[in-house]
Amino acid sequence: MHSYLNQSYKRRAAQWLDLLRQLVNREMKLLYKRSALGIAWTLINPLLQLAALAFVFQVVLPVEVPRYPSFVFCGLLAWNWFQATLFQSAGVIVANGSLIRQPRFPTAILPVVTVTVGLIHFLLALPILIVFLLIDGVELTPFVLLLPFLQILQLGLTVGLGYILAALNVTFRDTQHTLGVVLLLMFYLTPVFYSIENVPETYQLLYACNPMVVLIGAYRSILLEGLPPAWTPLLFIAIATFILLPLSYHYFERQSNRFAEEL
User: Would 10 be classed as within a structural domain?
Assistant: First the structure.
């Protein structure tokens, strides 16, 4: 009996992973269908953002941050992955009504697909960041091997939040619009284009409650500074993600029974 259950779980996991791969491929093709530049937009968008921020905060309003282009680019890649996939996850159920109505379709895979596509974009842009680092004279250390750990942590956190937002947006369609405003505010309250050291001490504890502040700081520690990240804040995020994922998944599954009739 135990052996049968193990085989059943393995078979279901294999089917789920195969479906994930197919849906990610489908999403990537749809994103760049009839686009002349195609997947190059993965690099163009953050590079244009970087150029604008570098001009404003190095020419117009100079900010004293060493290796500023690499510093900002590192923050942008992590933030853009979080922001774009969280916003898209909120609307993923509404946007895929035809799939939701199919019998026995695993609806819970859709937010995972969205966040995985964001991870692929992050990975495609990563070599350009490495080039920036090398041009700036940064020497990569063995701590760079911790990068997959940070990516897995960010993926789990974003999927957990995505489940809640996707379920809420089916019933309350203002969720995605409200989220867009919140994410815009969060961008300015997250040290993407400025250093956390510029934030007055009075507000630094409040900043630490934002998980992206911790994650972006960790990315910069291992890539820019060649140092290990601050483990205690990361441990808190890991514990919170470990608790959030099953709870948000359970909430999503409970709400999913009403998705077809709500769409």
Answer: no
Residue of 246, 216, 260, 226 lying closest to 74 (CA atoms):
216
Q: Whose CA is closest to 92, among 183, 179, 212?
A: 179
What is d(CA 159, CA 98) in angstroms, rounded to the nearest whole number?
A: 22
Structure confidence by residue, pLDDT tens digits, 106-123: 899 999 999 999 999 999
Number of Cβ within a 10 Å radius of residue 181: 9
Whether 2 is covered by a domain: the verdict is: no
Number of domains the chain is built from: 1
What pTM was estimated for this model as a whole? Answer: 0.91
Residue 17 falls inside a structural domain: no
Closest by CA to 176, choosing from 241, 86, 113, 116, is 86
**3, part of any domain:** no
Question: What would the pLDDT profile of 204-220 be if each residue is shown by its tens digit?
Answer: 888 988 999 999 999 99
Please give the residue range of the domain that contains residue 33. Answer: 23-262
> Please, what sign has the CA dihedral across residues 188, 51, 36, 129?
negative
Q: Residue 263 to residues 166, 179, 183: CA-CA distances in angstroms?
A: 13, 20, 25
Residues 6+ apart with CB under 8 A from 104: none
